[in-house]
Design brief:
Rossmann fold, five-stranded mixed beta barrel, six-stranded parallel beta sheet, 21 strands, pyruvate-formate lyase- activating enzyme, 3 domains, 14 helices, alpha/beta, about 475 residues
Length: about 475
């Protein structure tokens, strides 16, 4: 039995696709082994969201070939899509598979291996990259057994039409393509039957789900058309045995009174909202009359704050998280301070802070007034400190109250055994357990009393 090892880089969509590729190989007769072991085939599912991601992708490809020089090394995914010409010349890489080709991994490997045995593999035999911007087909991938046995990430959408000035993803993932709702429903039913309690709907631009089939575009009167996504959520909500539904990153403009009110009426919906912001300085987000000077985001800071207010109206202390970029071209220290004050005003539960990374082929890469790396580093440190403070304050809110926790993993904290899980707001919680007790509690959703914070980022819970 041939051995295969996989390594995933990047987002939750990538993670789902890696699970699907692993399942595909298992069904095709491969034994899956840890990446650090000797294998016949290594698959690296690459990422290209930043220069760091590019570098990590290259490093992992070279590492794989060192582990077994006779192996077949497969580069798949986003970095392949934007750097195919570079990878064609890399002696460590045997096969390159772009996005929308991952479902054909087993067949591609069979053909490559057959050519290798016959000594017929030519310079193009391992190249499988389509013009991602020219396809309108959603690649069907399926997973029926996910590594996390309590929560399942479900990919429902691919591609993005936004073309923010700093972002390479539309070039790596192509235009918006959506999965059929009946296919999503069937996969969720299968996962629930295997004991999964929670699903997380993910996509490259999740709010655009179903938009390729809507006339007039996604924006209606300044608000994002939430109809297709809400229909999908409600469809999944009706599945018996499913306990929780969580969403990936959302377009801020999708948050309306109607959308929030509908979600608040769904008992299984988790009040955890990731609304990408990127900057708290309005001119950086976008100047209507000078679109090439900013990020080309399609909302204002005032509008963003208003939509956070809608969420807090409909939900009791919802978790609101975001992404922030520091050091975007032209960002002055004064503008950075304005962003910091805005972040404090919104008061996020968590923030993912990124230093601006120049991506060749994007508008921002050629903008003037690029910010020095040292300044980016200092600003990142400031926001990470702010994030830690706001996050702690958010967690402290729950101390003394009852919380529902879906338990998952074991951990040792300060010399004691705990079982770890998450509340609906995605706050990580820890319950002290005795030896063997974790088997009984794993996968259970329990109502417990929050007693305090443990280890800085854990909500310690106990029996009421």
């Amino acid at each position: 039995m041939p051995k295969a090892a996989l390594h995933n880089l990047g987002c939750k969509v990538n993670a789902y696709e890696a699970e699907a590729m692993q399942q595909q190989l298992k069904e095709h007769g491969y034994e899956i082994v840890p990446f650090d072991e000797k294998a016949d085939v290594y698959i690296i599912n690459t990422c290209s969201v930043t220069n760091v991601a590019d570098r990590k992708s290259r490093q992992m490809l070279h590492r794989a070939k060192k582990l077994n020089p006779e192996s077949v090394v497969v580069a798949a995914g986003c970095y392949v899509q934007v750097a195919a010409d570079t990878l064609k010349e890399d002696a460590c890489v045997d096969v390159i598979i772009g996005n929308n080709k991952k479902g054909q991994l087993a067949r591609i490997l069979d053909e490559y291996m057959e050519g290798r045995l016959k000594e017929e593999e030519g310079p193009e035999s391992g190249i499988h990259v389509l013009d991602i911007g020219g396809t309108d087909e959603y690649e069907p991938l399926y997973v029926d057994n996910i590594t996390d046995h309590t929560r399942a990430f479900i990919k429902v959408q691919d591609g993005c039409n936004q073309f923010c000035s700093y972002c390479i993803i539309p070039y790596a993932r192509g235009r918006v393509r959506s999965r059929k709702p009946e296919d999503v429903e069937a996969e969720v039913k299968g996962l629930v039957a295997r004991g999964y309690k929670e699903v997380v709907l993910t996509g490259i631009h999740l709010s655009s789900y179903g938009m390729e089939h809507r006339e007039g575009g996604p924006v209606q009167g300044g608000n994002w058309d939430h109809g297709p996504l809400l229909d999908l959520i409600e469809r999944i909500h009706r599945i018996p045995g499913l306990e929780r539904i969580r969403l990936g990153s959302l377009e801020p403009r999708i948050i309306t009174e109607e959308f929030a009110g509908a979600l608040a009426g769904l008992a299984k919906f988790c009040p955890h909202f990731h609304l990408s912001l990127q900057s708290g300085w309005g001119a950086t987000l976008k100047r209507v009359n000078r679109p090439c000077s900013g990020m080309n985001r399609h909302y204002t800071t005032e509008d963003y704050l208003r939509r956070c207010g809608i969420l807090r109206k409909w939900f009791d202390h919802p978790a609101i998280t975001t992404d922030v970029i520091v050091g975007f071209p032209g960002e002055t220290q004064e503008e950075f301070e304005i962003t910091r004050e805005f972040l404090k005003k919104v008061h996020f539960y968590e923030m993912h802070v990124f230093k601006y990374s120049k991506r060749a082929g994007t508008r921002a890469a050629v903008m003037p007034d690029q910010v020095p790396e040292q300044a980016k580093g200092r600003r990142s440190d400031v926001l990470l400190e702010l994030e830690a403070s706001m996050s702690r304050e958010y967690r402290e809110h729950f101390i003394g109250s009852s919380v529902w926790v879906l338990f998952e993993d074991m951990a040792e904290v300060e010399g004691r055994k705990y079982i770890i899980g998450h509340t609906p707001q995605y706050v990580k919680a820890a319950l002290a357990v005795k030896d063997g007790e974790e088997n009984r509690l794993s996968g259970q959703i329990l109502c417990l009393k929050a007693a305090g914070l443990l280890g800085g980022d854990l909500l310690e819970v106990g029996w009421q």
